[in-house]
Amino acid sequence: MSSAEIIGKPLLRREDRRLLVGQGRYLDDLAVPGALHVCFVRSPYAHARIVSIDASAAVEIEGVVGVFTGVELAEWTTPLRMAPAIEGLLPVESTALPLDKVLFIGDPVACVVARDRYIAEDAAALVEVDYEALEAAASFDAAVADGAPLLYDDVPGNLVSHQAFSSGAPENILDTAEIVVEAAFHQHRVTHAPMETRGCIAEWDEGQQRLTFRLGSQAPHPLRSQLARRLMLEESQVRIICPDIGGAFGQKIALLREELVVAALSRHLRRPVRWLEDRMENLLAAVHARQESCRTRAAVSPDGRILALTLSMDVDFGAYCFYPANYMARVVAMILTGPYRISSYGYDVKVALTNKCGSGPMRAPMAIASWVMEGTIEAIARRLGLDPVAVRRVNLLRDADLPYAMQTGEVAGDITPAQCLDRLLADAEYDAFRKRQAEDRERGVYRGLGLCSVVEPSTYGSAFYKAAAIPGSGHEAGWVKVEPSGAVNASVGLMGSGHGYETVFAQVVAEGLGVDAETVRIHMGDTDVAPYGMGTRGARGATAGGSVLLLAAQAVRRKALTIAASMLNLNTADELQLQAGRVQRRLADQWSDTGVTLASIAHVAYLDPLRLPEGLEPGLEAHRAYDPPPMTYSNAAHACEVLVDVRTGKVTVERHTVVEDCGRVLNPMIVEGQQHGAIAMGLSGALLEEVVYDEDGQNLTGSFADYSIATAVEIPPMRVINLGKPSSSTPIGSKGMSEGGVMGAIGAVTNAVNDALAPFGVVAERLPLSPQYLRSLLRGKT
Amino acid sequence: MKPARFSYAAPTSMSEALALLAESEDARVIAGGQSLAPMMNMRLAQPELLVDINRIDGLSGVGLDAGSLVIGAMTRHADLAGNALVKAHAPVLAYAAGTIGHYAIRQRGTIGGSLAHADPAAQLPLVCMLLDARIDATSSEGVRTIEAADLFETLFTTTLEPSEMITSICVPLLEPGHGWGFRLFNRRAGDFAEVSAAAIVFNREGEAAVRLALGAIASAPFRADDLLPEFDPQDAGWPTRAAAIVAEAAPIEDNARMPADYRREVLQALLEDVLRDAMRRA
Amino acid sequence: MIVEAYERLPIALTVNGRSYDVTVEPRRLLSDVLREDCGLTGTHVGCEHGVCGACTVLIDGRPARSCLTYAVQMQGASITTIEHHGASGELSALQQALHERHGLQCGFCTPGIVMTMQAWLDENPEPTEEGVREALSGNICRCTGYQNIVDAVLVAAGRQADMRKAGK
Asked: With an 8 Å Cβ cutoff, are B189 and A713 in contact?
């Protein structure tokens, strides 16, 4: 294979082999001699004062090393103060473990350290915590109501964040418009539920005064900074090592309290300490996401043009802020208008703290945005009696509109929403479906087809993170080294959890350098080895990481060819190229082999530096950093086809088709796999998954029997068509992807169900689309 | 999520097993463990002694005896589903067993375990009710035969004594020509039913009858024959009519996560299908 | 006769044809003993209540959740884990198909899927897509959306059929 064409090939994944034969190494697979195990004692109350903690019976158990509480941890760690300078956002502080109050069911109050997990659990059951129960605020409305119990004394009304924005006078237009369409969208609380739960292994080296901390992290460097700071250590005293990660989806970014506690206890006890979260802990107390209610008002012309749009959004955040509480909602509000030309827009976003598990980003933190926008389009079509496709077309951005600056200032550049929609309508057989739908309705069978256009923010450079006040930078750094033998090592500061980086980045380095992909090995997840980077999040890994590795590899190639030119006694490397690790020279428009190989160049560079051209350093390596644009935008159009049994309310998804443009596709097999996974996560969330709290804040979904993730039976066949229009704003030409599938699936399946239910005159505006909910809409109408 | 400590015995004979059950204050029999082990891992069950009956010979398998199928308590769901005798003489039982949980679960779970666990949403308690199965419970005192209708007391509770274990299930053979229907409604493949129903239709010379059992909607599965309107095998509209009547009258327990009015609607849909299936197969 | 709750019982576990002498309390889960005492960490623990399927192994040739089994019960049984597949250095037809069809991403659920679906394919050598989806429904995968796994199982079935024919 010519190395010039490695990017874009569907190379099979090199990480597969070890994973297929049971030789992957996930956190809990690592044997650490002498390691102690912990189990956290967790609150059974949604909101309560801790009166006392009595661990005397627990420490009597043979094999128990100790039981530690927030008071002790506070001596060894600093609190987390989430206080970015964002107007309308209040600071929130939390300690390693609560000192006086628990704020949700599952809040850790003490940590048992023992010889093994069995004993730690035995002891945890014997720790007696005396609580004084307090009234709980277990929903947005309950939290912001007058006289609501306060979670934090310094967050009045529990309203931790409130931002408003308006451009183009939307309220004035709405006030005077002839047609105003309103729509509501209530998204339920879900959670990431990676198949591998969280966990960590801390090893404090007393001699070195250094902590080696193993955990699955999407962002090892920002995590190291945070861990070092909270342990009052230097970053040089903390090494993060990430083994294979069994899924993350946003749950493994921030340093959470259990991890901090385990690290502090290893240092305190001078013993290795490990924790593996169990599934119940993961579901109750890791990170939740997405409980958001949105309302839109659109002023429209009779042909469906949107003249003005406003969004109001209420977020039920939960109790703890490991991210700025406005972070996810802000992105929804910023990018809401997506692929549409809307010149007057405003939003009002409120975030309330509630007695539930805290929220964080989850694969497509802004997932609701596409549903809200596309659901608003559908509402307009219903109101005006127009074809929803026609309403989309009249508002859709065209090539001539691009680059398009949304009212919020976000600039969508290389997007192709009209092309994706056109292609989708053809490939999803839209017109044929309408005919079939009409025939089936005659015999009492209710099918629906839902569309959803998506503009997916991705890549997220420093300019985004700074504006969002997220700790860290936004850039990625990478290095590429040709070793003395000619072997190629490369590293980047990201960490993957199934993304296929070891394969894709090898392709990138191979193409940038001029070698076969098989000769490149990618090293990730060890902060002693990998350079600083912001990590895998926001669909940025391949674009940010791939771009920097491409730049570094190209730099190494230039040096290699300079050396080669000297080895060949040429004055310049202009007529040389590196292909599959061999130097070729152009003579009369023909490339011919020179006999010089990368290995021979490396030999000179490292072992015979006296032969190097004057002024050239020994060695053959390059280190580069790359800060992506604030945002790149991919786009897609989804079509979801459903069958609704109106007697029971059960939805069967029959197929899902996507046409997507995520720029240059680095490995089509892996990109398609990411799209499948995102669509499935979207559908599973929209149809089945739900974290259920009752009104007292009791969590009813602490097991996989209750928190229901879709199986192979519920997920339909999927078809993905890629239209890759390369990005002009990233070196590698990709735009970032893998979250848009979630966004599109949620919007498309909901629109599909509403399409199916149209004959009954009902509209689902709440997720999940459970049989029970759909029956409640249909009751008396079927 | 690790179980609390328990003592363990794996007797190789019935007498040994029964002696253990008789002697221990707080013993639980473990067969396939597919229901008990999760509860133990979550420490919702913390028995002192686990009596493992997997090593006792003769507790599994299916035979024919005096007009009945005799099914050993340790017969695994997958074996029940695939057994030729069961398929021939109680096809509804074979079918229902094949819908339990998932493929791997069916390899371990047993009929005796399922009946003793008494989950009102489970398949086998429902079908045993439908088929008028008789359950042999054995203790050191001897064997007691319990009608299925008398076994299930309430949620996860049977009328078995702590010293008793189920040893076999006797299912009266249905005559050829009967028709059956079994359906369960769940949101996700393999989940326990939100509503389940099973029916048998007999249509002989001048005599027609229907049996109906309902599951998941009350604290135990129950027979609902008496809720059915008079059966008319000639009336193609009967299932629809009967479904509406039964759904209207069925006692359905309310709970916060699944209100009765919703379950009633699902029940009606399910009944229509179940009764139609049974008539079609008769 | 009775193994007391605190007693540590020496047992011989047969895993992948090899005998492992381990000492276990009655409550030790087979999944933990395989992973910690036998060092066979390919069996993954995803939920410990029998729903996710990641810990599926074969007990006497039949798939079972190792998190719902106590090691003490396994005296005399023959256990097969993922380490059995690929020990020869070659991937099985199913593993190879999963590789080619990109039927795994993070790989955490993969061993359980290989164990389950290989056993199922042995019983169902001519599967339909619907059958594969039903059989696979006891294994949760959070990454792939299942479609590539389903495709891979069908491909593997086809190749196994070809091999059987060639063998005849």
From this structure: yes
Cβ distance C82 to A22 less than 8 Å, yes or no, reads: yes
Size of interface B-C (CB pairs under 8 A): 98
Chain C residue numbers touching B78 (CB-CB < 8 A): 62
**Closest Cα in chain A to C52:** A704
- The b-or-e profile of B44-60 (16+ CB within 10 A means b, else e) is ebebebbbbbbbbeebb
Dihedral sign computed on CA atoms, order B152, B158, B163, B167 = positive
Choose the closest CB to C144 out of A20, A677, A709. A677
Whether residue C55 contacts residue C45, with contact meaning beta carbons closer than 8 Å, is answered with yes
Cβ of residue B154 closer than 8 Å to a chain C Cβ: no
**Cβ A16–C107 below 8 Å, yes or no?**
yes
- Its sign, for the CA torsion B87, B90, B94, B96, is positive
Residues A703-723 have pLDDT tens digits of 999 999 999 999 999 999 999
Q: Dmax over Cα atoms in chain A, in whole Å?
A: 89
- pLDDT for A199 equals 98
Shortest alpha-carbon distance between residue B260 and chain C (Å): 27
Over residues A269-321, the pLDDT tens digits come to 999 999 999 999 999 999 999 999 999 999 999 999 999 999 999 999 999 99
Strands A411-412 and A404-405: antiparallel
> Which residues of chain A neighbour B261 with C-beta distances below 8 Å?
779
User: Considering only residues 235 to 294 of chain A, which have any Cβ-Cβ distance to chain C shorter than 8 Å?
Assistant: 244-247, 249, 278-279
pLDDT tens figures, A642-669: 999 999 999 999 999 999 999 999 999 9
Q: Give contacts of B 72-91 with C, CB under 8 A.
A: 78
pLDDT at A3 over 70: no
First to last CA, chain B: 49
Pairing of strands A108-114, A36-42: antiparallel
pLDDT tens-digit readout, C114-156: 999 999 999 999 999 999 999 999 999 999 999 999 999 999 9
Find chain A residues with C-beta within 8 A of B5's C-beta: 122
Supply the pLDDT for residue A1: 36
Could you tell me whether strands A520-523 and A488-492 are parallel, antiparallel, or unpaired per DSSP bridges? Answer: parallel
Omega into A768 within 30° of 0, i.e. cis? yes
| Residue B140 three-state SS | coil
Please give the Cα distance from B227 to B238 (Å, whole number). Answer: 14
Q: For residue range A100-133, what is the model confidence (pLDDT) as tens digits?
A: 999 999 999 999 999 999 999 999 999 999 999 9
Instruction: Report the DSSP pairing between strands A190-191 and A411-412.
Output: unpaired
Contacts of C91 in chain A (CB under 8 A): 17, 20-21
Q: Could you tell me which residues come within 8 angstroms of residue A248 by beta carbon, excluding any fewer than 6 positions away? A: A192, A194, A216, A218, A497, A536
Give every strand in the sheet of A590-597, ordered side by side: A576-579, A582-587, A590-597
Flag whether pLDDT at C16 surpasses 90.
Answer: yes
**Residue in A125, A708, A772 closest to B188 by CB:** A708
With a cut of 60, say whether residue A629 has pLDDT above it: yes
